[in-house]
Amino acid sequence: RPRSHTVTTTSSSFTANLSASSSTLAYDREFLRTVPGLLMVTEIVLGLLVWTLIAGTEYFLYPAFGWVMFVAVFYWVLTVFFLIIYMTMTYTRIPQVPWTMVGLCFNGSAFVLYLIAAIVDASSVTKDLDNHNYNSWAASSFFAFVVTSCYAGNTYFSLISWRSRTLQ
């Protein structure tokens, strides 16, 4: 006797939304005109300065500068990643991710770890260590504190955004 095969297919709203919205990439130029956008670009530029100033020296001989390099490179890469997410408005395509909480955790952790790294950097800079690296290490220390203040500002704006989302 012949068998009857019935196949039922379903699609989730996630895959339907993802396939419908992935046809074109959006570009948000206005993000760079906001204070968080400007702070993010400043974090990228000055964070790049922090780790290139240290990378151009014999930092690997001193463990403290290795920590500063780790924090600077790690958060530089993640900040570039988040800038791309915000510029392409990818966050609107993945609504399941709590982006305000992610931004708050990212900026808060960047602020705390960059503050520690800046203090370690500043306390490790002495002319006794290596005279020809002194200027690079001193400059990296200064820029690390400036980047720390930028992350503090973005943490503040992320907190405001998170609070306004949780009150709704």
From TrEMBL:
Keywords: Membrane, Transmembrane, Transmembrane helix. The keyword Iron does not apply. The chain crosses the membrane at residues 31-54, 60-85, 97-117, 137-159. It is found in: Membrane. One of its GO terms (cellular component) is membrane. It is a multi-pass membrane protein. One of its GO terms (molecular function) is structural constituent of myelin sheath. One of its GO terms (biological process) is myelination. Residues 31-163 form the MARVEL domain. This is CKLF8 protein.
